[in-house]
Amino acid sequence: MVRHKEGSDPASVAFDACSAALSRGVDVVIVDTAGRLHTRVNLMEELAKVRRVCEKALGPGAVQTLLVLDANLGQNSLVQAGEFTKRMQTTV
Known about the structure:
Distance between the termini: 26 Å
Strand content: under 5%
Radius of gyration: 14 Å
Number of strands: 0
Number of helices: 3
Mean pLDDT: 83
Structural class: mainly alpha
């Protein structure tokens, strides 16, 4: 587990986690970015930055991004999935 002080840049925490995994010979790194809603542009930009720094640390093609949605959100989930997909395609 890699963590920084509260309020730290999430991308720097993710980069440190990926770097630590490489140096420790770990095969899988899980970065939880819960709360990055499509309605919050800054949070979606932050998510894209996290992906970019992980790709930088681990190499192209080494990052798999998953979206987990709450089924209770209904139609809003489709909108969120669309925005998420759009944002992740621009970072590759």
